[in-house]
Amino acid sequence: MSGKPNNALAQLLQQAFFALRAKQFDVAARLAAEALKSNRTDRNAAMILAHALLGQNRAGEAIPPLDKVARRSNDPEVETLLGHALCGAHRESEGIAQLRRTAARRPPYLPAFQELAGQLAKAGQLDEAVKVIEDAVALSPSSIELKVDLGRLSLQNNDRAKALAVLTSVRDAAPGRADVLVELAKALLLDGKYAEAAELYRHVLAQRPDDILSQANRAICLMEMGKRDCGEAALRNVLRGRPQMLGRAAFALASTTHGRFFFRPSAAAKFLERELAPTP
């Protein structure tokens, strides 16, 4: 008989997990909250509940169950999610302090460094965010993900030379990875190396043909290379069936030296909705 409650709790948590994975956040939150009634400090129930609440933009409600579990354990994953929830609830100073404590743990929990760097970047503290990721890379020099983060943050910090150096080395270490190629292409685009960026975006789109932002950025490269017709055709492909992309497409047209500017969105839409031409 003693095993039945545990089995019932396990089934409840399994249902909550599947609901969370399906992004049925309200169902996941209800089931996880029910599970917590049986055990207020159940780690898995608290984590599922917190993720479900965060998925509903209810960060403040995710804090109490996470805090309760964090106080009773030394679980860096729980602490990292707690830091994320605190920042999401506009308690950034508390959240960043929590993340600093977790990042100071040894052995290191690398996602805590990534979350801390991300929150510092959101707060405009880009120099410090870069330093946090550099510390993480020093602790785990083989991590491709950390180096991609370092390149991305360096680019945000307007250090294009550093971003290019880091991302080029990552590309050489992990050739063909689309996430790496996207970040390197972005750095090349911002550095004015349009032909190289366009070629990388071509490789990305061979793997991820539905990557709309990469299509739009490749169009910018083509127009900057003087291939205006090809770039405009690429933007028409971006816009087709996606009216929400009009602003991005119009910005791409206006921001290039060989582009076009429209005073009215309707004029940009009319121009871009012409019959599609083949893209090279």
Kindly describe this structure.
The chain has 280 residues and is mostly helical. The protein has 16 helices and no strands. α1 (3-21) runs antiparallel to α2 (25-38), α7 runs antiparallel to α8 and α11 runs antiparallel to α12. The chain is globular and about 65 Å long.
* Whole-angstrom Rg: 23 Å
Shape: globular
Q: Mean pLDDT, as a whole number? A: 87
Estimate percent helicity.
over 70%
Q: How much of the polypeptide forms β-strand, as a percent range?
A: under 5%
Tell me the distance between the termini.
Answer: 69 Å
List the helices and strands in order: HHHHHHHHHHHHHHHH
Largest sheet: none
- Briefly note the structural class of the backbone: mainly alpha
Low-confidence spans: 275-280
In total, the number of strands is 0
Summed up, the helix count is: 16
Topology record:
Elements: H1 3-21, H2 25-38, H3 43-55, H4 59-72, H5 76-88, H6 92-103, H7 110-122, H8 126-139, H9 144-156, H10 160-173, H11 178-190, H12 194-207, H13 212-224, H14 228-239, H15 246-255, H16 265-272
Helix pairs in contact: 1-2, 1-3, 2-3, 3-4, 3-5, 4-5, 5-6, 5-7, 6-7, 7-8, 8-9, 9-10, 9-11, 10-11, 11-12, 12-13, 13-14, 13-15, 14-15, 15-16
